[in-house]
Amino acid sequence: MNNKLDLSVDIAGVTLKNPITTASGTFAPREFAQFMDLSELGGVIVKGIANVPWEGNPTPRVAETYGGMLNAVGLQNPGVDYFIEHDLPYLEKSGTKIIVNIAGRTIEDYCEVVEKLADTNVDLLELNISCPNVKEGGIGFGTSPEMAAKVTREVKAHSRQPLIVKLSPNVTDIVEIAQAVAEAGADGLSLINTLVGMKIDVNSKKAVLANKIGGFSGPAIKPVAVRMVYQVAQAVDLPIIGLGGIMTGEDAAEFILAGADAISVGTASFANPRACIDIKEELINYMNKHGFKTIKEIQDAFKG
After folding, report:
1. Which of 194, 186, 227 has its CA nearest to residue 211?
2. Nearest CA to 252 among 283, 274, 224?
3. Which of 75, 99, 124, 131 is catalytic?
4. Domains and CATH numbers, the chain
5. Active-site residue 276, yes or no?
6. Sheet containing 68-71: order of strands
7. Is the pTM of this model over 0.90?
8. Series of mean pLDDT values for 10-residue runs along the chain (304 residues)
9. What is the 3-class SS of the chain, one letter each residue?
């Protein structure tokens, strides 16, 4: 690393040594530690954790497609108690910030998770409001400003750590949702989550995923993600973690130019388990090439 560069960023009062984080749902700490030193990352965002174990959806639940992939894993996870006992001690030794993605089917589910994490060494919470609200007929918490604000307000009241709200792109107006959760007390935002997609095998005439529809991620969604980050950054004064199709250091720089303070890498890691480290080094090269010394200087350089 170039010692003249300051890659540190502030996310809701928590300092990350650099802006590179892992995207929730794509990162298994022990497995990825075989390929890279986790302390080189700004932070790790772990897979969504619920109040009880979730089995996830039936297989097949992952499929490649043009410019990305579809997944319908269904937030399979071992539950918060298992996470605290088995996974958190390992992460505490990793030398990087720990960000836990919170999943739930009811507001009470979310609150139970954050209450159990309150006295742990978790640094930040990432609230997944794309989860289906079973009390409202399965509608995603993040699809209406009122519902998004309600879950944010309730969870914030029970959380000790700063609360980052992860926004769904599957809405008419992303800015309206962002403003609603900001007013409800969110400490930061993460965007975007996956788009809703589908793939059909034209030979078998069946959906490729057992769930039929799934979350679409990868480089094909990057222009949508950059646009949404830009719009939200213009409207809301909160730190933003940008994600959606980041494959290179220049992709990361594009999100920062759009207004992101940090970025998450997801789909790229399936093809290259060292993607996060490669992207960090490429971002450093970009900064050296353009004479940037800090991440804030990149943000301020956008000319519109």
Report:
1. 194
2. 283
3. 131
4. 9-53+75-194+217-300 (3.20.20.70)
5. no
6. 62-65, 68-71, 213-217, 195-198
7. yes
8. 83 98 90 93 96 92 95 91 96 97 95 98 96 68 94 97 96 97 98 95 97 94 98 98 98 98 96 96 98 98 92
9. CCCCCECCEEECCEEECCCEEECCCCCCHHHHCCCCCHHHCCEEEEEEECCCCECCCCCCCEEEECCEEEECCCCCECCHHHHHHHHHHHHHCCCCEEEEEECCCCHHHHHHHHHHHCCCCCCEEEEECCCEEHHHCCEEHHHCHHHHHHHHHHHHHHCCCCEEEECCCCCCCHHHHHHHHHHCCCCEEEECCCEEEECEECCCCEECCCCCEEEEECHHHHHHHHHHHHHHHHHCCCCEEECCCCCCHHHHHHHHHHCCCEEEECCHHHHCCCHHHHHHHHHHHHHHHHCCCEHHHHHHCCCC
In the chain, the amino acid numbered 64 is E
| Identity of the amino acid at 38 | L
* Structure tokens, 302: 């956008």
And the tokens for 146?
């009122």
